[in-house]
Amino acid sequence: MENITKNKYEVDLRVDFPIFFQDEASNVWILMQTCHWFIWIFLIFILVFVLIMFILILLDSSTNMKYIFSLKHLVFRYLHIKGSKIVHLSRVEFIWTTLPCFFLLAIGTRSIYTLYLIDAQLGVDFVVKALGRQWFWQYEVTTPLLSSLNNIERFYFDSYMVILNEQEPELGDLRNLKVDTMLSLVVGLPVRFITTGMDVLHSFAVPSLGIKIDAVPGRLNSADVILERHGLFYGQCSELCGQGHGYMPIAVYVQNIEM
């Protein structure tokens, strides 16, 4: 019975109110998360540094107010406690002026490096054309035959959302995400996603794959992805495209195939 409770496609079911990202399923998402946590190191350091300086300035200001009413205490503070002064200390001001420059340089360098790797074109084995329509996705998949990589085969199909029976839902089905025909791909083979809009603006987005490609009428946008693990990954149209915008789910089934 335990095996039945798991979705047969090994879908990543998320908990309510998630804090972290979805698990990585492509090289693009791995690069993006690595860059994210790299930047967070600097953000945490800045937060701690500013918090410490803020507390020291408050303590320094309260000490000034305490001794300002007594000339004897004020002279004592000037002679013995002047080394603890934080406000208008030139060394501290030099530090919090120069450090952000190095932080911005490190963050900018890593961001440009990540963007370059994400936009790099790969020698792809699959080409997936996702055509956004009101309100469903139309796919054209170009793939080499597994028996002979010299042969090319193309598949055309439409993918519509399936309205679930809320009284008797099937095990593992997700509301407004199940489709009648899923996009099926293979682990380890590079894929090029090409999108365009056939009527209005759409956006092809699958968070676990780290892709969000605008489908603009009259224009082709693309992204190359290497699929890292098998499973069923969901996405949705991420551009407001009309009253049926919330009913354009994307289901990508990535499977292991022995070549």
Shape: elongated
Give a quick account of the main beta sheet: strands, pairing sense, barrel closure.
5 strands, mixed
- Which stretches are poorly predicted, pLDDT < 50 over at least 5 residues? 1-9
- Average per-residue pLDDT, rounded, comes to 78
CATH superfamily of the largest domain: Cupredoxins -  blue copper proteins
- Percent of residues in β-strands: 25-35%
Q: Quickly count the helices.
A: 3
CATH architecture of the largest domain: Sandwich
Number of strands: 10
Could you state the order of secondary-structure elements as H and E? HHHEEEEEEEEEE
Helix-and-strand structural type: alpha+beta
Q: Give the end-to-end Cα distance, rounded to a whole number of Å.
A: 32 Å
CATH class of the largest domain: Mainly Beta
Strand arrangement across the biggest beta sheet = 3-2-1-5-8
Helix content: 25-40%
By CATH, the topology of the largest domain is Immunoglobulin-like
Please tell me the total number of domains: 2
List the keywords.
259 residues; disordered N terminus; 31% helix; Immunoglobulin-like; five-stranded mixed β-sheet; 3 helices; 2 domains; 26% strand; alpha+beta
Q: What's this model, at a glance?
A:
With 259 residues, the chain is of the alpha+beta class. Helices cover 31% and strands 26% of the residues.
Describe the structure.
By secondary structure, this protein is an alpha+beta fold. The protein has two domains: 27-119; 126-255, Cupredoxins -  blue copper proteins (Immunoglobulin-like, Sandwich). Helices cover 31% and strands 26% of the residues. The protein has helices at 27-67, 71-80, 90-119, and strands spanning 126-133, 136-144, 152-159, 183-186, 190-197, 202-206, 211-215, 221-226, 231-237, 249-255. The strands form two sheets. A five-stranded mixed β-sheet has the order 3-2-1-5-8, with no helix packed on it. Strands 4-10-9-6-7 form a five-stranded mixed β-sheet, with no helix packed on it. α1 runs antiparallel to α3. It is elongated and about 70 Å long. Residues 1-9 have low confidence and may be disordered.
